[in-house]
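Lab channel / #folding
Pinned by the channel admin:
"Please post every new chain as: sequence first, then the structure tokens as a reply. Keep commentary short and put observations after the output so the thread stays searchable."

First post following the new format, from NK:
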Amino acid sequence: MMTCAFTVSVVTQDDVFSQLADRWDRLVDGCESATPFQTHAWLNSWWRAYGIPGRLRVVVVDAGPELVAAVALFVSRRRLVRVLSPVGVDLSDFCEVLVADSVREDRDLVGILCSAIGDVAGWDVVDLPEVRPGAVALELAAVWPGGSSTTPASTCLELPVQDLNDLVSALPRSTAKHIRRKLRKLDEVRVTSQEVAASDVPAAISAFHRLHLAQWQGRGVTAEHSRPRFRNFLTEALPLMVHRGQAVVAEYHLAGDLMGVRINVVGPSLMGGYLSGVSPLLRDHVDVTTLMLRHNMEQSLQRKTPVLSFLRGQEDYKLRWRPKPVLNRRVVLARPGSFRALIYLTATKAQAKVLPWLRTHVPWLKNLRTQARRLLGT
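Reply from TO:
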């Protein structure tokens, strides 16, 4: 359908979505709120690994030959509720509705997106679980014609990109002294770091997967990370992303031996430390967190990304650097007039209130949940 200068369509065929690569990534490059988890290689590879044929729903808005807005969704089912979830869900730290900066101030476009999503058949709610501050998805929720909610989601930790000496100098004196000692140790041991060329990424991902499993052996590795489909997903996505400057894969060597592989994702506004696989032998020689933070900061400076993100999670090893906590939001949009959507929306709001209280006052529930996941392999 045609509205003003915009043409809206819904892509449901896998091969058609694959063909959008160049135009899609030009839209990502022109969208300040986009993250690496909205790049075409990431989304398309995720869909090929995890998607179910026939359930793809990609809303795209064209203005002439270029895409000016897009959101990649798919239909899933949670009990009786039909949910439009973002392609890449669970393995992506951020989700977003892409709108080119050149047209973001056009209020008509937000309404067009609302209408386009509403016209997609066969769903009750849109559920975007991890939305960053300043995202277009939040603007969409503000004008959505049905019920909507924006509730707290994961906390991400971020550092402004800067010279590492400046970062360390701003830390408490005892912490700074401790880190400087670790940095001197790194220089003495002489661990080398090398970025991997796109053509060599598949071999590096194979090594990463082996090292990652060894690193977490006996400590409750995330079940999905141990599965072949996850390795296949990374093996397909990352060569393209490295080639396009959307990811960095780096190897660490000690005395000529491969000791670690790190995966970073790169977007217009941030570099994110996604995952790493490290030999226990390297941990015997150096502090791996300090090693990788130094190299991550150097790579961010080279690429002029303003933010280095630790992505989701508030682990102690991240907190020592005094990063800024940034709260993601869960955005849920209910189809107007749907009773099932209303129930889902009410449950979402209740969950957002109850779960934080339970985590604070009944901490054993978290341990019980972790043990259950290990037993079930989920």
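NK: The chain has 14 helices and 14 strands.
TO: also worth noting, Residues 2-154+328-376 form a domain with the Aminopeptidase fold (CATH 3.40.630.30).
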